[in-house]
User: Fold this.
Amino acid sequence: MPKSILNVAQIRKQFPALQQYMPNGNPFIYFDGPGGTQVPQRVIEAMTEYLIKMNANKHGLFGTSQKSDAVLEAAHAALADFLNAAPNEIAFGNNMTTLTFHLSRSIGATLQPGDEIIVTRLDHDANISPWLALQEKGAVIRWWDMNPENCTLDPAALEKLLTSRTKLLAVGYASNAVGTINEVKRLAQIVHAAGAMIFVDAVHYAPHGPIDVQDIDCDFLACSVYKFFGPHVGVLYGKYPLLEKLPPYKVRPQENDPPHKFETGTLNHEGIAGAAAAIDYLAEIGKSYGVQFANAYSQFSGRRRDLKMAMHAIQAYENHLSLYLASELKKISGLKIYGLTATKDFGQRTPTFAIRLPNVAPAEIAQRLGEQGIFVWDGNFYALEVTTRLGVEEHGGVVRIGLAHYNTVEEIDRLIVALRKMI
Ligand SMILES: Cc1ncc(COP(=O)(O)O)c(C=O)c1O
Assistant:
């Protein structure tokens, strides 16, 4: 069972937010991870330490600024290790949405009227609207529909959308609404064969499994550290030659080289210090619980390997949790789970479950669970196309139960009891 993979009790002790209780003594249950995860103490300390000891702007000729520069550089290296990239291929920003708008505008500046971009109906709007905005430049948007039966994207349908004018596919690594994982490596091969680029939104996937941008061979990938145990900071990866070539939107004194040309304005330095600490937290998970998976990552060493082992261990633990949650949900009469539900498909989904109950609106479910200290999201979570395609957008969307590696079987049991009382 899950306990053999991670020592969750030990892990939970590191998260102060998990030590909060309802007046009746029940601990809060955080099933809201896809909207933002909790942070371990070391992240809080790294941010505090930054603000106390090195709070300064960049490139000053004095101690605090030099320390601050060192922290920012170390954070680029930490995120590069997480994604298996080079540090100068990592740009920080406010969040994934802002970075993606920035990049889409840069790419837009290189497009000709009639060039085509493919977006999907399984994606979060942060990987749709920045590309739709390029219609102003004459770009043509092609929609890759999802199969509403199981919320998957069919690569054969992608092949039919590709033309000699296709410049980019914007696709999620995993759906934040229903948890489907896309075969991004295969998709990269398909679009590259057609002479186009691929932008991967890894925001939802990042807390749930290892990412290797070199193996995927994606051109760009974005994620958000607040979804994987860090503060509110966005991260953009781009292949160096592409970042070098693209025109940035920046102020003149800003550096002209990647990645800093995509980091215009003063960044959230304390958040970036916390981002590096989140990576160190994950690396510790790898060292403590991931050694059994080391053989799968013999091509890596040091922190890169620790991080891959960590995410593998987390994935294995979460898979057990998912199987348990799904089996309990399926026993509740009338409850509908959207997306992949067959046990055999659980390797292709994250532990994020979209559900509806007959006769109880998603907002009411979330409200009643919230009153019991069980935190879940309801609505569309900005995956507007998904809820529209599923025909539930007009009916309050869905309830999203999002598991993270700090969740437990006992918490799932409390949720199930609470849901049963609603039918
Ligand atoms: C899959 C996915 N993509 C993009 C985003 C947007 O990320 P950010 O909040 O960093 O802009 C989210 C946020 O929920 C998401 O889940």
